[in-house]
Design brief:
By secondary structure, the chain is mainly beta. The chain has strands spanning 10-12, 18-21, 29-38, 42-49, 52-59, 69-74, 80-82, 89-90. Strands 2-6-3-4-5 form a 5-stranded antiparallel beta sheet, with no helix packed on it. Strands 1-7-8 form a 3-stranded antiparallel beta sheet, with no helix packed on it.
Length: 92
């Protein structure tokens, strides 16, 4: 299924394709931490960005308090798009 400009789509990306930054960088998206969970060799960082909630993977030594402001660098080439009604994958 292809989509056209202006059409509503859902975006999906894996947690390992989101890098959490503690300082702002050009092109990085601002987010807020609401939970961190140390998993041994990595930390899952639960975030809010606007009205969206997402999870990123960070190094095991990453620490942040609740409501800490961070920035996200998303690997744009790893983004997947889906039709919000059917869940079918869309191609750009």
């Amino acid at each position: 299924m292809n989509f056209i400009a202006g059409e509503l789509v859902k975006m999906g990306i894996r947690a390992e394709h989101i890098q959490v930054l503690t300082t702002p960088e050009d092109g990085a998206m601002e987010a807020r931490v609401y939970v961190t969970e140390l998993m041994g060799n990595e930390t899952f960082v639960f975030l809010t960005a606007g009205d969206n909630r997402l999870i990123a993977r960070a190094p095991a030594d990453f620490r942040a308090d609740v409501d800490t402001r961070v920035w996200l660098r998303i690997a744009k080439e790893k983004i997947h798009y889906f039709d919000p009604e059917s869940g079918s994958s869309c191609k750009s």
